[in-house]
Each structure stands twice: as C-alpha cells, then as structure tokens.
C-alpha cells in the first residue's frame, strides 16, 4: 500500500529527499501529500508530519487593514475558520488504522512547541489509561524510528576503513602520459590521480550549476585569445565587450556582469598599458593557446608530458617568454621554487625541448603570471624579492628553474614507477589549496581526525 505524508509539502520534501531515487521520481510505495490532497486518500500507514504550532495549525496572518468584525459584516470568513479546517483534516487522518504523529523539538535553531492536538491527545490518553498511557502512544518496539536513528549514530566496528588509503596498482595500470597540471596534482594529492586515471572515476557537474571560477577563467582566456588574434582596434571598450560576451556564453548572471563592469574596465586599461610598455620586447607574432608535448624515457618506461601555453612571445633578444593568465591569485615565488607549482617551469621544459611548434631551438628567458580578474597583476618568476619582503629570494636564471623542475619531475615519476609506492591521499595537507573531488572516497573525515 501507499505511505502517505500528510503535511505541508514544502516543509517535508527537503527532509525526505533521500526517499527519492536518482531519476527524481518518488518511491512507488510513498506518496507525499498536503492536507487538502490527502482528504480523499487511503493508505496502510499515515504519517502526520509538521505537528507544531505555527505549522499545523498555522496561525492566521494579522490583517491590519480589515478588522475581524468588519469581515463578518461584509460576509468574509473569519481567519480562525482555517484552524477549524486544519483540525478537521487532522482528525480525519488521525483516525486511520495506523498513524504516526511527528513533531519537531526544534525549528530554525530554536525550541518548537508541539501542536495543540498532540497535547490534547496526550491529556486524553493520560486520563483514560493512567500508567499505560506512555506505552500506548509510543511506537512499537520493533518499529521505533528513534531506535533506528540511535543505531545509525553509533560508530560501526572498525574494519580497516579508518586508515588512510594507500592503493598500489600494478605498473602497467599507472599513467604514463601527464599534463603539466596533472603533475601538480600528483605532488599534492596522488590519490586524485589514482582515482581519475587508474580507476577511471571522474566527478559530474551538478545540474544548473552556477558559473564558478572555471567558467570565468575560460571566458577570460577565450576573450584574450580573440583579442590578440583579431586585427580590430586595441581599445578598452572592445576588450570589455569581448570579456562580457564570453561570460554570457558561460552562463554568468547579467546582474553580476554589470556589477563588475567598471572593475573590468580598470583591469582592461591596466592590461593595455602593460601591453604597450612591453611591445618593444616582442619580435614576431604572439602565439596564444598553443599545445605542446615532449616524450622521454625513465627507468625503462616511456613517458610523455603535454601543456597548453596561454601566450608565447618571441623576444627580440632571441629568447622565449611564456605567460600564463590567472583570474585568481597566481602561485607564489616560494611555491614555484619549491616545486609545488611546477606548471610554468614544466612549460618552459617543453619549450626548451622543442615541444611547441615553431619555437624550437630557443631558450626560455621569462616565465610570467598575469592576473586578470577584478585587478591586474604581473608576477615575474625568478626575480629577486623586493627590499623588506618577509621571505627573500635572490634572482635566479629561468634556465635553472626549468632544470630544477625537470629534475623534480624525473624523481617524482621514478618514485611512482616503483610498484610499492602508494598513491596516498593528500600526504601533506598544507600543500592542498583546494577541495579534492575524491576526499569522500578517500574517507578523509575518518582518518584525518586520528592523525
């Protein structure tokens, strides 16, 4: 038979979301009705939820414009009539053969009062049954939701699930082709690489997902690419129009686009100023969104590394400058030099080895992060720290940074070429600067507290 929930639909639907299957359809033996819909229905088991004052019965809304005695004079029903109708619905449904009455002890983080009908029922039963009243109103011992909840809240017996996962797949299952961004993931969270590229598990975006940093980043990259390849006028308004066009295509809300328009104008103006000041350094065409790849052998295993450079400039001094656009805060100098953010140096490695078409045989002379969001910032990798900086760095040649990244890459890949090397989940939590899609699969909540 059906299972009927007789209450206000909007209050119960969220609480019973787990009762729905993946297709969004309700369970075939469960029907969720409002009091009006439930009047003409029958069921084996009726659950009356929301039996709290102000919910069922709901208090009539105050009417400051039309007093009650005026309503009677003009023939409009008294608001308290609705409480009578609610009482009728309650009495009719509460007389079903099997009924469960539910009331909340707290609502919206405040104490809640049970419905007057529950209090009157308790009073009536207490007067009629005396000492047997509590047992008569309680759920059956074999069908008590409170016991189910208590069992769910008890921690299960440990069966080895509360330790950090350390999968060790065979060598032939371990990935041999990497992107420069995947190398950073392998450093910070090897378990994510294991899940994605060994198990083949990848997250699905939720339906109607609002635009996020990825969408905005893609919009900025596409707009700047079109701006550099188009032969039109290099003006602030044209660049802003391109940015907003791409943001709209990505689903950005129009109100948010308008709200940040002046900020984008300022950023676009700073970008064009920087572009004009550095134009004399460039010799030849600017290459945007270029894909490159190199291959190499380590420990008798063949590997390949690929990357996409946002912007490559051929400089007048014969070197190559690689630029990467970020809508958020770019990696710090310390992270790049420590090898925790190797994307740009590894792109320099691909460039040095001739992985990008048309730029072989040239040394990398500059690695630059360009922050293009609500502000514009230029960060040159390898420069000396400013005077008075908390962490000081000496200036270093880009070739040395690229060589360090190459050495770190080889050591990392050789380590994971060992069949006993596990893919640990977030081995250094301080290195993880974003939420992992696989934290729940790795049971991080279970073992992080123990460690």
Strand content: 15-25%
- Helix fraction, binned, reads 25-40%
Tally of extended strands?
12
Largest sheet: 6 strands, mixed
Shape: elongated
Mean pLDDT: 84
Order of helices and strands: EHEHEHHEEEHHHEHHHHHHEEEHHEEHH
Oligomer: single chain
Q: Spans of 5+ residues with little confidence (pLDDT < 50)?
A: 6-15, 17-23
| Broad structural category | alpha/beta
- Counting H and I runs of at least 4 residues, what is the number of helices? 17
End-to-end gap? 49 Å
Radius of gyration: 33 Å
Plain-language structure description:
- It is a single chain.
- With 451 residues, the protein is of the alpha/beta class.
- It is built from 17 helices and 12 strands.
- The longest helix is centred in the last third of the chain and has 19 residues, at 398-416.
- The chain is elongated, with a radius of gyration of 33 Å.
- The model is unreliable at 6-15 and 17-23 (pLDDT under 50).
């Amino acid at each position: 038979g059906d299972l009927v929930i007789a209450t206000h639909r909007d209050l119960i639907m969220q609480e019973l979301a787990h009762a729905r299957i993946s297709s969004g359809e309700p369970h075939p033996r469960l029907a969720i009705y409002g009091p009006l819909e439930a009047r003409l229905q029958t069921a084996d088991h009726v659950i009356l939820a929301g039996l709290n004052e102000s919910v069922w019965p709901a208090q009539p809304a105050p009417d400051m414009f039309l007093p009650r005695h005026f309503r009677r004079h003009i023939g409009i029903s008294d608001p308290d009539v609705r409480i009578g109708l609610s009482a009728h619905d309650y009495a009719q449904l509460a007389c079903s053969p099997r009924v469960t009455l539910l009331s909340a002890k707290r609502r919206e983080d405040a104490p809640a009062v049970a419905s007057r009908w529950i209090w009157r029922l308790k009073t009536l039963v207490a007067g009629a049954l005396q000492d047997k009243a509590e047992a008569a109103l309680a759920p059956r011992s074999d069908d008590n939701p409170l016991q189910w909840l208590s069992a769910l809240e008890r921690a299960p017996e440990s069966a080895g699930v509360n330790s950090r996962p350390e999968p060790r797949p065979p060598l032939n299952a371990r990935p041999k082709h990497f992107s420069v961004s995947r190398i950073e993931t392998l450093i910070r969270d090897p378990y994510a690489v294991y899940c994605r590229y060994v198990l083949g598990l990848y997250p699905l975006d939720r339906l109607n997902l609002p635009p996020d940093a990825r969408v905005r980043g893609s919009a900025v990259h596409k707009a700047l690419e079109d701006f550099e390849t188009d032969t039109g006028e290099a003006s602030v308004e044209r660049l802003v129009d391109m940015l907003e066009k791409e943001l709209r295509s990505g689903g950005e809300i129009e109100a948010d686009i308008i709200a940040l328009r002046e900020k984008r104008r300022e950023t676009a103006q700073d970008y064009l100023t920087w572009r004009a000041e550095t134009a004399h350094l460039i010799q030849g065409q600017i290459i945007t969104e270029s894909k490159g790849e190199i291959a190499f052998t380590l420990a008798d295993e063949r590997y390949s590394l690929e990357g996409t450079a946002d912007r490559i400039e051929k400089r007048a001094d014969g070197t190559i400058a690689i630029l990467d656009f970020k809508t958020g805060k770019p990696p710090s100098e310390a992270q790049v030099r420590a090898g925790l953010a190797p994307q740009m140096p590894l792109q320099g490695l691909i460039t040095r080895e001739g992985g990008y078409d048309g730029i072989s045989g040239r040394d990398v002379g500059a690695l630059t992060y360009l922050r293009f969001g609500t502000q514009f910032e230029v960060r040159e990798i390898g420069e000396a720290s400013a005077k008075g900086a908390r962490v000081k760095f000496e200036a270093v040649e880009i070739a040395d940074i690229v060589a360090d990244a190459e050495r770190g890459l080889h050591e990392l890949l050789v380590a994971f070429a060992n069949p006993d090397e596990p893919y640990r989940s977030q081995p250094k939590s301080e290195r993880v600067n974003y939420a992992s899609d696989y934290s729940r699969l790795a049971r991080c909540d279970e073992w992080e507290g123990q460690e």
